[in-house]
Specification:
five-stranded mixed beta sheet; Immunoglobulin-like; mainly beta; elongated; about 50% strand; 2 domains
Length: about 210
């Protein structure tokens, strides 16, 4: 940066460094969620690589910085990893400059079918829980601290925090309580990491 006097024409200069930064479209979400990453303050024309959880970790995508050092929005997919807080990094291939933002992987819970009679069966699957943890499936439970709810089954997740679906760990077969009222009920999948390691789904008794 140069400053020059209008009348004296004297000048002075000082170095000016732009600090790279990064913006994520989401700060948290489920496995497989598409998110966008936009990086700022990189060298004009350099390739900017996006990595998961380390500056040289799993590569998620890349883009070329424009003349102003900004990349177009880079669409990446959240990896299949367990519940927790991770980081998404943008790293300049030529400059080595980097910027990062945190991203929290949250659990999901799915019940199939989503309605049926008392005494009927359903299957429950989940993603994004803690790795190798026990997830308890509870009936009429809407908060992590719910008490008095009926336990319908349990699952021990795989290394990615999943059970059912594409996981090698089976889904949980549940039986709808015979004394359930004919309304929509809340099913919960309760992990053991902390109160955020928790997800609900609904089931309508017909």
């Amino acid at each position: 940066m140069i400053a020059r006097g209008v009348t004296s024409q004297r000048s002075d200069s000082t170095p000016f460094t732009t600090t790279p930064s990064e913006v994520l479209s989401n700060s948290g979400g489920k496995q497989g969620l598409p998110i966008t990453v936009t990086a700022y303050g990189f060298r004009a024309g350099e390739k900017v690589n996006v990595y998961w959880n380390a500056g040289s970790g799993t590569s998620l995508g890349s883009a070329i910085a424009a003349a102003n050092g900004t990349t177009p929005a880079i669409t990446v997919t959240v990896p299949v990893v367990p519940y927790g807080t991770y980081h998404v990094y943008a790293v300049g291939a030529a400059s080595g400059a980097s910027a990062g933002q945190s991203f929290k992987v949250n659990p999901t819970l799915t019940v199939s079918p989503t309605s049926g009679a008392t005494g009927s069966s359903a299957t429950v699957s989940g993603t994004g829980y803690g790795a190798k943890e026990t997830v308890t499936i509870r009936w009429d439970c809407s908060t992590y601290t719910c008490t008095g709810s009926t336990v319908l089954g349990t699952a021990v997740t795989d290394a990615a925090g999943n059970f059912g679906g594409s996981s090698k760990v089976s889904s949980v077969r549940i039986v709808i309580p015979r004394n359930a009222t004919h309304v929509t009920h809340t099913l919960a999948g309760k992990g053991t990491v902390n109160s955020n390691d928790f997800k609900t789904a609904t089931y309508k008794v017909t």
